[in-house]
Write a structure and sequence with these properties.
The chain has 149 residues and is of the alpha+beta class. It is 29% helix and 30% strand. The protein has a single domain (3-31, 46-148), classed as Fusion Protein Consisting Of Minor Coat Protein, Glycine Rich Linker, Tola, And A His Tag, Chain: A, Domain 2, CATH 3.30.1150. Belongs to the TonB family.
């Protein structure tokens, strides 16, 4: 009987964190605000990094538990013994909603679709914050699939 293991890496954005924080500080200093005042205001800015990054309610352990409970490993991936990472990018808005999920690097054999399905059914996240205010933040989540025999 085939068994599978889902391994999750939530910290894909930690690489280059110091550089990203420096860029964020420079952007905040230069712009002062992410939205222009007035009725003709542009759409709110979507940040690549925030002082407080978005997070799954309950943290990484709750996230792993959620994924393990909800995953449906595709038969095509099991039959082909396909394992690896599917990178899903999405926006966490000011209320914690997940917007516009898309696969940025996939594996095929149904794993891309399964990763998207999992992201779409996730509960609301805690939003990212800058200067204590919730903001839209782009988040890229690598989901690692491993088929074990």
């Amino acid at each position: 009987m085939l068994r599978f293991l889902l391994v999750l890496s939530c910290f894909s954005l930690l690489l280059g964190q110091a550089q990203a924080q420096n860029q964020l500080a420079a952007a905040l200093t230069d712009s002062g605000s992410s939205v222009s005042p007035g009725p003709a205001a542009a759409a709110p800015m979507v940040y690549l990094v925030a002082e407080e990054m978005p997070s799954f309610p309950g943290g990484e352990a709750a996230f792993t538990k959620f994924l393990r409970a909800k995953i449906q490993y595709p038969a095509a991936a099991l039959n082909h013994g396909t394992s690896g990472k599917v990178h899903v990018s999405f926006i966490v808005d000011e209320q914690g909603h997940i917007l516009d999920p898309k696969v940025v690097k996939g594996l095929g054999f149904g794993l891309d679709e399964e990763a998207l399905r999992l992201v779409r059914i996730m509960p609301w996240w805690s939003p990212g914050k800058i200067q204590g205010q919730p903001v839209k933040v782009v988040y890229t989540l690598p989901i690692v699939f491993r088929a074990l025999e």
